[in-house]
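Project outcomes to date are best conveyed with an example. Our students and postdoctoral researchers have been running inverse folding experiments weekly, and each run begins with a structure described purely in tokens. The record below, which covers 294 residues, was selected by the lab manager from last quarter's runs and is presented without edits.
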């Protein structure tokens, strides 16, 4: 190492060490903030998510006696980074994006999971054009598949694993493209821009119910095994009293209009171990989670 490189490395190290106490101090000061920033997963159009979540904002402000700001980040990656650097206090993560966030911010705590149809699980689906060339999973060979965000569970990891279990490996047996949100995947399948796409079963059903997707033109080809549902996650640096209040506000949530935001009937308690299945699935796919954009 020459002198210039040595000095640069030394200065970088000193800067990092100097910045560390500032980050720690900032997080400590945010242990009981006057305003709570609540991030919602950007799996559909941001303005629609914010509009539909207004009952949630009012409910949390009433329960927690604090101002609440709803946040929808541009993608999964920016949401993970916002949690990592303390720019949000509470987040509604997808299962895989939570696992990625936990890698980068070990102190965050999952505390509640959505329950739908009596279960804290959901499914991913692979959809195709109803009258398109793909009639079976085998027909996906040589085709273009649309996935959502690289850090999405039901719109990337799970459908990709489903295809792998049927002998189809990405880039070897089919091409794929990341399209961002789940609704973008469904629209691309309907338009014939991709021949198959992976997304959440619940989101697909909602898109059809709203008329965003024509149920006569797009059909479900295959569905996954159950996946642990989306977790609510909070900063571990919050005071115990505030964490208890946040946890109770979700576990005791009964309002149907609010729960609709989460496509859930209620919330149950959860912890980090519930998401080990995602880590195991990534290992089966030889997917290095440290290299997943998120």
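After processing, the design step wrote out the following sequence:
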């Amino acid at each position: 190492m020459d002198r210039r490189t040595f000095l640069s490395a030394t200065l970088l190290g000193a800067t990092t060490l100097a910045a560390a106490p500032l980050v720690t101090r900032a997080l400590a000061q945010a242990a009981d903030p006057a305003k709570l920033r609540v991030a919602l997963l950007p799996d559909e159009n941001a303005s629609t998510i914010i509009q539909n979540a207004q009952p949630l904002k009012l409910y949390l402000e009433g329960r927690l006696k604090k101002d609440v700001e709803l946040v929808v980040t541009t993608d999964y990656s920016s949401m993970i980074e916002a949690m990592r650097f303390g720019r949000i206090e509470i987040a509604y993560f997808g299962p895989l994006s939570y696992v990625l966030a936990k890698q980068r911010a070990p102190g965050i705590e999952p505390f509640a999971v959505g329950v739908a149809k009596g279960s804290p699980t959901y499914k991913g689906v692979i959809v195709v054009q109803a009258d398109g060339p793909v009639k079976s999973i085998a027909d996906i060979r040589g085709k273009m598949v649309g996935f959502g965000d690289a850090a999405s569970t039901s719109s990337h990891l799970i459908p990709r694993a489903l295809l792998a279990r049927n002998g189809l490996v990405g880039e070897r047996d089919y091409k794929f493209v990341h399209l961002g949100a789940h609704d973008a995947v469904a629209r691309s399948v309907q338009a014939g821009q991709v021949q198959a796409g992976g997304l959440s079963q619940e989101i697909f059903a909602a898109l059809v119910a709203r008329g965003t997707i024509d149920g006569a033109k797009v059909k479900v080809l295959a569905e996954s095994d159950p996946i642990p549902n989306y977790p609510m996650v909070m900063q571990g640096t919050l005071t115990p009293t505030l964490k208890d209040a946040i946890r109770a506000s979700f576990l005791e949530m009964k309002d149907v209009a609010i729960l609709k935001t989460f496509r859930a009937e209620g919330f149950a308690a959860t912890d980090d171990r519930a998401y080990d299945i995602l880590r195991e699935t990534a290992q089966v796919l030889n997917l290095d989670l440290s290299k997943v954009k998120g």
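The chain has two domains: 35-118+230-291, 124-225. Confidence is low (pLDDT under 50) at residues 1-28. The training component of this project remains on track.
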